[in-house]
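Thread: Newbie trying to understand structure tokens

Hi all, I'm a second-year student working on a class project, and my supervisor (Dr. K.) asked me to get a predicted structure for one chain before our next meeting. I've only ever worked with sequences, so writing a 3D structure as a token string is new to me. If someone could post the tokens and maybe explain what I'm looking at, I'd be very grateful. Here's the chain:
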Amino acid sequence: MFISRIPLNQARYGARQLIGSPYKLHAAVECAFPPNAVRNNDEGRILWRLDTSVNDSAVWLYVVSPEKPDFMHIVEQAGWPTHVEWETKNYEPLLERIAKGQQWHFKLRANPARKAKEDKGRRHRSDGIVGKVQGHITVDQQLQWLIDRSTAHGFTILNDQNDQSDVVVKERHKENFKRADATVTLVTAVFEGRLEVTDAVLFRKALCQGIGRAKGFGCGLLTIAPDLNNKAE
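---
Reply by user tm_fold:
Sure, no problem. This is what the structure looks like when written as tokens:
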């Protein structure tokens, strides 16, 4: 597995096109790999996420992939071709370090959603909504969505000094974009906070396979960094 990042130059039209359309950015990420490249297997799959840097004007594209990518086409279209290329690192050393009991700072952009089991609408709908995917709207719902999935992905959310969940839910959006002739609507949110690994195998899988739906549209990529509150890490 590999993890990469590339800055996108928002002053360029090509970058604004990619940033504004998860469908177009998905296609651009896919083109970083040859037709015969491994895109999804038992070890992992292609995942990506856009992050806005607080230190500069760049938007960073993060990608996790089973094979090493070539982002030259994105650099030429949406980056700084004469100055900045991209960074790619072998992900295996970090994955091999994962162990039960470790504490990490994490970031995840996800599509917190569920399949409707009943129609709670006040008006009758001829098409019905039972079985359809609905996005969670409130902060509490979105946070609970993550908590409900934490055990299955090998981690638990840590609490702060007030015994409250140490996670910030931010950048909450309802996104609409074109996919061929259809309009796709996604509810997305960014989760950032602290976690503890409870199952190393499941947690490594979460890092490589992602969490939740809409992985092709920039959701599901979980990244971790040393937890500054954890002196042992």
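A couple of things are worth pointing out once you decode it. The longest strand covers residues 182-197. The CA atoms of residues 64 and 106 lie 15 Å apart. Feel free to ask follow-ups in this thread.
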